[in-house]
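I have been asked to look over a protein record a colleague put together. Alongside the sequence sits a line of tokens, each denoting a local backbone shape. I have pasted the whole thing underneath without changing anything:
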Amino acid sequence: MQKKTLVAYFSASGVTARVAREIADAVGGDLYEIRPSQPYTAADLNWMDKKSRSTLEMNDLSCRPAIAEPVQNMEQYDTVMVGFPIWWYVEPRIVDTFLESYDFSGKTLIPFATSGGSGIGRAEKSLQDHCPKAVWRKGQLLNGSGAADWAKGVQNS
């Protein structure tokens, strides 16, 4: 059976989406956008506003925003590359929704993130806590060029 890769990503502003497309093209993977059933508005994403939707979600560890549509036939994928922007030093809560929606036991999960200044370390630990039965590979912060080369290298290692 041929190994298949899914590049699943959440992108609020389009930055992570561009990186995810580059990665999917580089590794020949299927692309899946983790879209919220209720799209985020600019006001929702204002992290300076303590009452904005994103701030309220990130302050509630149990918050799991609903996803618009599920991945079809998740069982066909051996490797899932999970992309997201760093919010409050970790992954957005909707990524937790995604991770908790499927059985990733034995699958290889590889995180990648975009960020204006935070590293990926705390997010990696958080992701592993949500999905301990997956085989986690080291993630990468990708804020520009180099995503395709990184993806090819990590996929073949």
In short: The radius of gyration is 15 Å. The first strand starts at residue 5 and ends at 9.
